[in-house]
């Protein structure tokens, strides 16, 4: 297989991101995408869609039984979202860190420049502007869920600093 590495340590990964209905409604999608690109990500795939509650429940199946499950899945199906595949060195961690903590109040206290601090609802943890995969396995699952026809590996063409090593 082709292993894609950079001059710095780190492997180019893909992660999955959603701009949630609250941020879409408030018109923050463009600013959020601007921050994504400024942070060195490439947006490999992007689609706007509205989830049914069934699909939202399937997507968040790991949270089934938690007190916020119904509120979360109703909210996630309440309006259009933007779903994206992002790529970068250490994309999974980098996107989680750009988003900030789950709770927008905590985000504002700890990382005032994070997306959830800037665009999340301080009154309501559910409406925290963005979603991001928390690990490689969930990234794979979530990408497949939203982009079923996408090839498994991204084309390694998008950063000049990369060397392509035939492993
Ligand atoms: P994450 O999105 O930061 O990974 P998770 O714990 O996976 O956080 O929760 C998924 C989503 O469920 C959160 O992004 C948020 O929208 C919602 N959520 C999580 N915890 C709470 C809560 O305590 N109250 C209300 N909503 C919550």
Automatic annotation (TrEMBL):
GO biological process, one term: UTP biosynthetic process
Domain Nucleoside diphosphate kinase-like: 12-154
Residue sites binding ATP per the record: 20, 68, 96, 102, 116, 128
Entry superkingdom: Eukaryota
UniProt GO molecular function: ATP binding; nucleoside diphosphate kinase activity
Alphabetical keyword list: ATP-binding, Kinase, Nucleotide-binding, Transferase
Catalytic residues of the enzyme: 131 (pros-phosphohistidine intermediate)
Protein family membership: Belongs to the NDK family.
Annotated protein name in UniProt: Nucleoside diphosphate kinase-like domain-containing protein
Organism from which the protein derives: Planoprotostelium fungivorum
Taxonomic lineage of the native organism: Eukaryota, Amoebozoa, Evosea, Variosea, Cavosteliida
């Amino acid at each position: 297989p082709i292993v894609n590495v950079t001059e710095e340590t780190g492997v180019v990964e893909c992660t999955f991101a959603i701009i949630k209905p609250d941020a879409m409604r408030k018109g923050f999608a463009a600013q959020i995408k601007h921050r994504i690109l400024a942070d060195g990500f490439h947006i490999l795939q992007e689609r706007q869609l509205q989830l049914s509650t069934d699909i939202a429940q399937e997507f968040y199946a790991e949270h089934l039984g938690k007190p916020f499950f119904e509120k979360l899945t109703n909210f996630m199906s309440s309006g259009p979202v933007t779903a994206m595949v992002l790529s970068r060195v250490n994309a999974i961690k980098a996107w989680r860190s750009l988003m900030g903590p789950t709770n927008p109040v905590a985000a504002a206290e700890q990382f005032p420049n994070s997306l959830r601090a800037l665009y999340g609802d301080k009154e309501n943890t559910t409406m925290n502007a963005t979603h991001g995969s928390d690990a490689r396995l969930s990234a794979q699952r979530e990408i497949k869920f939203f982009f079923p026809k996408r090839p498994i590996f991204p084309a390694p063409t998008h950063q000049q600093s990369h060397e392509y090593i035939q492993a």
